[in-house]
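Input (SET domain-containing protein):
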Amino acid sequence: MSQHPDSLVDCSRVMVKNDAYGGAGAFATVDIASGSLVESGIVRVLTNCDGNENPYVFTWSDVLPNTTWAIGSGCSTFYNTCEEELSNTHMVRDFPNKSFVITATKEIKAGDELLHVYKSKKWRTCFGELNEEK
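Output:
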């Protein structure tokens, strides 16, 4: 599948399928070199949403406590979280342009699950059980 050059979203290297946790996760469809693009996209900033309760939205601010939330395009909402040493991707948010880029932080093989550390994992109440597992 090719990516149209004018598209604001590129998730051509990612697919969503059942994960090991009983939900859905994002997985690489091709080998991806460390430092390379995994996915890029845009977000819709939400109103009337409490991201402390809703785990499916992104923090869309660097100000704490965060009161701005967004939903991402493509496969971005299906990346599961993990501990830093297991992470193989990193998301950079461009707040003014309402866009993001996800890059590989290590070599990724086709079929690997794409994981990153949620930036708000430690303080959002909806992620409390993730922090209790330690």
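The domain at 14-132 is CATH 2.170.270.10 (Beta-clip-like).
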